[in-house]
Design goal:
The protein is an alpha+beta fold. It is built from 22 helices and 24 strands.
């Protein structure tokens, strides 16, 4: 660990008390000599650590050398802006020593950046940095768009990235924590190279070091992990793309590899003293043994080895924060561009189109619309099919679950668009399965259209069947299932839930599949084991699921009485039912969907999608959905789908969308008896009663 001190230096010009604001000059546009230009902050040295900050701002052009790792002579700084208050000043001088007292003006900066620059300033020579708050003219939206688009290159091609966690604090004792991280990281790194026969001794030594430290410094380490940098969304790009990373906290510094090893050991040695946020920070900063994707894990994976689809990247880092809601996407575009397969990025122009003049709802909507039009048939990412439209629609319902879709945190967006400012309220059902079957009413000719607004699509138009109606919803209290050693409370909760089911359903047979009602219910509560974690008992052998169902039959379907023997089922039920409720339908189906689902919502089969969705008529008084005499769901105000009339009907719908029935997207759904291609068989058998509709989702 290195301690940085302010001290005497070779040059310290007199500060004349300049008050005028520095006026930026426009950057030189792209030309034959360079592909992009940036400003570099040359932080000038000072004898006195308390001397005012002075710098040169020098424009420099760079070329892109595709496939060739070229690093430039500057350090990129990763830090948090903090509150938008700018009490400190950075003075800009002409790019020469000839007139040290002449000033071009000052740039107002935050207290945190001021502190970072003071600690990074050297005694004898300038240090060359790239700092977004200074090197980008933040008041010029056009330049800001261009420079933020270039940020992946800026961090990727810097000689190093400097992480600034903030000043030292009496609350978390940076010296103590950073010293502990260094000692623990070094001890862990030496143990990894040892032979199996001797590594156990090093393991005892590591455990002893962690235990002794946490016994005396629980509060300090907890406060340290709460520093804002650890939850900042932009750090993902800044750290993942960097050539090398050094972490600074006040006067203290450690390298990233040492830090991530320390985070790994701390996570593994959690003694119950850390909150969920602390554990999220530790898990994200390092690679843990459960195979989760983390910053360190992906830093250590070659570009060719790391392939991930855009939506998976956005979900992976959903807990990371930013001030501008548009940065929920913009901050990860560089990482998405690096990790996504080339055949995806070639079809996704949005990741190169950063525009802060657009409102948030336009940014989110355009991104969703473009994703839905990507051709994923040739993607060889996993041994399963991938339905990207299904995935977008699922995340639209899972993020920031809303009582009234389209209005969240003051941002009004269509219900079919993911609101990335929200939290992931429940896990989407499996949209990609090796044995997955989509509903294919049009035999694979997907019809996905968008009705345009002034700035973005406002309506998603698909073809599908309003298949069934929700007649009841029943909630399950999963809180007791999340507690350790509380099987009795879990049984009480499940028994209360089953009593409510029995009040609504009077037949012991589940007619859609001819199973016993409780068997169908037990499978539905875990979505047919779709969310089984890799470390679950059920994941170890597929026969264990059959063992569970056989035991349920032998126990005469007394599901609550089985919980003490099957804790893995309790855990899986709690995971699956988080944010979800059971629903029953008019045709006798049962399933699980978001808790926002209400009676009279419509279970819909949308063409080309791998799971059913729950829709709600936006103006129920005028367009009440109902069951016809033959059991088919009738949806007034929707065009019947006829191939010969489709273009004409779409033109009518586009001319006045409000004149026709439109729906809000409420949830994806697991419907027991409709998840394995049964809907296609029903369509063949009852085609006359199941009229395809043109469904407009707003």
């Amino acid at each position: 660990m290195t301690m940085f001190k302010g001290g005497p230096g070779a040059w310290d010009p007199v500060h004349p008390g300049i008050s005028k604001i520095y006026q930026y000059r426009p950057l030189t546009p792209k030309c034959q000599e360079h592909d992009y230009t940036i400003r570099l902050l040359h932080l000038l040295p000072a004898r006195d650590s308390d001397a005012s900050l002075r710098c040169w701002l020098i424009e420099k052009g760079y070329r892109d050398y595709w496939g060739i790792p070229v690093y430039h002579d500057y350090h990129a700084v990763s830090y948090t802006w903090g509150d938008p208050v700018f009490p400190e000043a950075l003075e800009v001088l002409p790019n020469s020593f000839s007139s040290p007292t002449e000033s071009l003006g000052v740039i107002r900066i935050t207290q945190n950046l001021h502190s970072a620059l003071k600690h990074l300033r050297r005694r004898d020579v300038p240090v060359v940095l790239w700092v977004d708050a200074v090197c980008i003219n933040q008041s010029d939206v056009t330049e800001r768009n261009s420079q933020v688009s270039n940020m992946p290159n800026i961090y990727k091609k810097a000689s190093s990235t400097i992480v600034w966690l903030g000043d030292e604090s009496a609350v978390d004792d940076a010296r103590l924590c950073m010293s502990f991280f260094e000692n623990l990281g070094r001890l862990s790194s030496t143990s990894q190279g040892q032979q199996h026969s001797t590594s156990w001794r090093k393991r005892f030594e590591i455990n002893q070091l962690v235990g002794d430290f946490l016994d005396e410094n629980k509060a300090e380490i907890a406060f340290f992990l709460e520093r804002p940098w650890f939850r900042r969304r932009w750090i993902v790009q800044e750290v993942v793309l960097a050539k090398s990373v050094a972490i600074h906290c006040g006067r203290w510094k450690i390298d990233w590899d040492t830090f991530h090893l320390a985070m790994f050991e701390l996570f593994e040695s959690d003694q119950g003293i850390f909150t969920q946020d602390h554990r999220t920070t530790m898990r994200t900063m390092t690679g843990v043994r459960n195979g989760g994707r983390t910053i360190t894990a992906v830093r250590n994976i070659g570009v060719a080895a790391k392939k991930q689809l855009p939506l998976d990247t956005l979900v992976e880092f959903a807990s990371f924060l930013c001030a501008d809601p548009r940065d929920r996407l913009y901050a990860l575009y560089g990482v998405i561009k690096r990790w996504s397969p080339r055949q995806v990025t070639m079809q996704l122009s949005q990741i190169s189109n950063i525009d802060y003049s657009l409102p948030t709802e336009t940014v989110f909507t355009n991104f969703a619309a473009e994703l839905m039009q990507i051709n994923t048939h040739d993607l060889q990412l996993v041994a399963s099919r991938y339905w990207i439209v299904t995935h977008v629609l699922q995340l639209a319902t899972a993020f920031g679950q809303r009582d009234m879709p389209g209005d969240h945190f003051g941002i009004k967006i269509p219900s079919w668009v993911v609101d990335w400012t929200g939290d992931l309220c429940f896990e989407p059902l499996q949209h990609s399965r090796a044995n997955g079957v989509a509903f294919e009413a049009l035999r694979g000719n997907d019809v996905v259209q968008f009705l345009p607004n002034k700035e973005h699509p406002s309506h998603l138009v698909m073809v599908g069947i309003p298949f069934d109606m929700v007649t009841a919803t029943i909630s399950l209290d999963i809180a007791p299932m999340l507690l350790t050693n509380s099987v009795h409370k879990a049984r009480v909760s499940l028994n209360k839930f089953l009593s409510e089911v029995a009040r609504h359903v009077h037949d012991d047979s589940y007619k859609p599949t001819s199973e016993h009602l409780v068997t169908a219910l037990a499978i539905s509560l875990v979505a047919n084991w779709d969310h089984t974690p890799s470390n679950s008992y059920f994941a170890q052998d597929p026969r264990f699921i059959q063992d569970f169902l056989a035991q349920l039959r032998n126990q005469q379907y007394h599901l609550p009485e089985m919980l003490h023997k099957w804790p893995a089922y309790v855990e899986l039920m709690a995971i699956t039912m988080r944010g979800r409720s059971l629903f029953l339908t008019a045709k006798g189906y049962m399933g699980i969907a978001a808790t926002a689902v209400k009676t009279s919502d419509v279970v819909s089969l949308l063409d080309g999608q791998s799971v059913p969705f729950i829709l709600r008529p936006e103006r129920a008084a005028k367009y009440s959905v109902y069951h016809g005499e033959r059991g088919a769901v009738e949806a007034p105000g929707c065009f019947d789908y006829q191939a010969m009339r489709y273009s004409y009907d779409m033109a009518m719908l586009a001319s006045d969308p409000g004149a026709y029935n439109s729906f809000s997207l409420i949830s994806d759904a697991y419907v027991h008896g409709l998840m394995k291609g049964e809907s296609n068989e029903i369509m063949k058998k009852d085609g006359d009663d199941l009229a395809l509709k043109i469904i407009s989702i707003s």
